[in-house]
From TrEMBL:
It comes from the Bacteria. This is Co-chaperone DjlA N-terminal domain-containing protein. It comes from Tianweitania populi. CDD domains: terB_like. Residues 32-138 form the Co-chaperone DjlA N-terminal domain. The lineage of its organism: Bacteria, Pseudomonadati, Pseudomonadota, Alphaproteobacteria, Hyphomicrobiales.
Length: 143
């Protein structure tokens, strides 16, 4: 995606690490936190879900796989201080297309392990409501 490439180029020129970039961007932090919480929603972390997160991080945010462990460590620390509602409040300012992309990424993570748990469905439903996204919007248009 173009945004991932732009972020990567900016980090090269600015000399920022992926963690610094995430820490300085509340929207990116909130988005990654929500995606990370989707992985944790069913109480199990599958390799398929992590692979999907790696792909999303690279394509959408320009975060290389080599940097992902550091970013996840940062999110684990930061995540204890941030509620889902606080994270989602950041997205109310975003355009509708970006909200749809976030919702599609959440669905991709939830479906990655081929087992959709009750907690994953509940988290997704809550996120869609707070993002003001109709389920039909993310199911009708392929990613």
């Amino acid at each position: 995606m173009p945004q991932g490439l732009i972020n990567k180029l900016m980090s090269v020129f600015n000399g920022q690490t992926a963690v610094e970039r995430v820490a300085e961007d509340p929207v990116l932090t909130a988005e990654l936190l929500l995606l990370f919480r989707m992985i944790l929603a069913d109480g199990e972390i599958s390799e398929a879900e992590l692979d999907t997160l790696r792909r999303i991080c690279k394509e959408s945010f320009g975060i290389d796989e080599a940097d992902l462990d550091d970013v996840v460590d940062y999110l684990r620390t930061y995540g204890y201080e941030t509620t889902i509602a606080q994270s989602l409040a950041v997205f109310r300012r975003l355009d509708h297309d970006r909200k749809q992309l976030l919702a599609r990424n959440m669905v991709a993570i939830a479906k990655a392990d081929r087992a959709l748990g009750k907690q994953e469905v509940q988290l997704l439903a809550r996120a869609l409501k707070l993002l003001e996204i109709e389920p039909s919007e993310i199911l009708s248009t392929p990613r």
